[in-house]
User: What shape does this take?
Amino acid sequence: MSAQEVTDLSKFRNIGIIAHIDAGKTTTSEAILYRTGLKHKIGEVHEGETTTDWMEQERERGITITSAAVTAHWKDHKINIIDTPGHIDFTAEVERSLRVLDGAVTVFDGKMGVEAQSETVWRQANKYGVPRICFINKINQIGGDFYRSLESIHKRLTRDAFPVHLPIGFEKDINGVIDLITMKSYTYKEFTDHELIVGEIPADMLEKAKNARSMLVEEAVQADEALLEKFFDKGEESITEEELKTALRKRVLDGDFFLVTGGDGRGVIVEKVLDLVIDFLPSPLDIPNILGKNPKNGEDIVRHPDVKEPLTALAFKLATDPFVGKLIFIRVYSGKLQSGSYVMNATTGEKERVGRLVRMFADKREEIQEISAGDIAAVVGLKDTTTGTTICDPANPILLESIDFPDPPVSIAVEPKSKADQEKMGIGLGRLAEEDPTFRMHTDDETGQTIISGMGELHLEIIIDRLKREFSVEANTGEPQVAYRETIRGTSEAQGKHIKQSGGRGQYGDVYVRFESNPGKGFEFIDQIKGGVVPLEYRKPVMQGIKETLEGGVIAGYPVIDVKATLYDGSYHDVDSSELAFHLAGALATREGIKRAKPVLLEPVMKVEITTPEEFMGDVIGDLNSRRGRIDAMEDLQGGAKLVRGFVPLANMFGYTSDLRGMSQGRAASTMELHAYEEVPPNIAEEIIATRNSK
Assistant: This one.
């Protein structure tokens, strides 16, 4: 079936597959592609044959790094599937995918239940209000348990998760599910079978199935008052299959009610998952209309998922393709985008020409002429488009809310191994920074070194690896460094006066600035000049002088954050004043004022979650305490494992993964994500400042 055949928006599904690392997302995606006829063989992650993991590093490491958009068809519906990473260092990939998805399948490892990163992706999906269905994978393996995993969903994520299917059998004997809507069994002899056998519910499970269905019906009827009355008047039997489905769909679309199924993600059972996607997850018509602003006057604009409305689209991912160059994945919210047409980049205000449009089948592609409202595809030929850019009709501009990404907390210095690699390294890093909004690069003014920053050690490791493979650059790297910050805890006032007389025209700039703490709000500049003591044209240079000095740091050379600077007085000279003089005056006032406003050093503190067998619990906790960690909570998990949650400064966590492996015979695992920037204890701050200033 060609992509053009499905034009009815109610038959579109834009879904993501989200989960903790190793829960089986990519394998489930592979099985979906196999079942929907795109593949003739199911690729295994460990054999490096998967479609959506198309980067070499993904195949080697068995993890998903970039989200890959794949189009598939099932029962006259078109499904755009985005397979997202589970590793916390690539959390931005999950974030940007969720921003453009309408629904998601959350995959859980049936042997582990809810894991640390499961909670993170669940919170991200809540943030964007994405309706989900839950798939408990690997329940046919030793230690796999559907009911215990469901219990962990209730305990750690939500009480509003209810089975829509019950597994038949236990562990290796599982051979299908009971569908609680149709009250039929769907079984297979081998998980690789080509079709499910529909039959009656096994006698020994009938009672259990009836009880589970009653709970499902009770929950469903709450979606509709008329149905609720019918339920109370005539009982559960009066609710038809169609009414039950409609009511459950309504509840799932509300985003706070979740249907749960389970099975082997490699097998024929994913057909039941596909049915749930079609029956219960939203089409583009079910999601709220998209809101934006007119970039000219800031007025609110509403766009509907309709091809007749002006073009509105969001670029949510960039990828460098070895054959076609820069690919930009976009979600079209209204109107249609045609190859060869001119569009407006609402973020920059510039017009750009669309080259080719391609529908992606992971690493394969099919050229198309247009993409309409509700659809996802990739564009070739847009030069200045980055993640979060709005693309729209030049005659009807609209600016959608962009995607915010956290500042990366880990940095390392990189240098090319040879002179020949110097230029190639600059180009390669530039391309990778374009693709990945959580990866940054800059040149250290003092040392001349190139510094790259990312979300964690693994993130930077992959960047260096890609540099080598994709851009043929051999590079040496330094030790990972912490991205510290500076801020102030007090208030101060300072004069900045720049006077220079050296023959000819002099320089004169004089300002008084008040500095205050501005927690969580970044840098803010307030102009309180009255009576023109500092002329209007010199006030912006003052702000720039303050801002540049804050970015370069005052006590230890780290950026100063969360400061409010108020320009309230000053003086000028008719002849000698200039923009440069006031820029320098602003800088002088900042250096002086920050030193007097109780400056402190801040460090990134990571939220750490460790899963460990009980016998290593004491060692794990003792080790965290030695790293200046604070234990926040401890929980029991499936299979006698323990979960330890805590907060630890990033400076003490480099190399932690291998240390943890060593102390637990390789049996403990951990995840880390940035929690907050907190004040560094005075004795440690002194050491950091002394080391930094001695360089």
Remarks:
- The first helix runs from residue 25 to 35.
- Confidence is low (pLDDT under 50) at residues 38-67.
- The chain is about 30% helix and 30% strand.
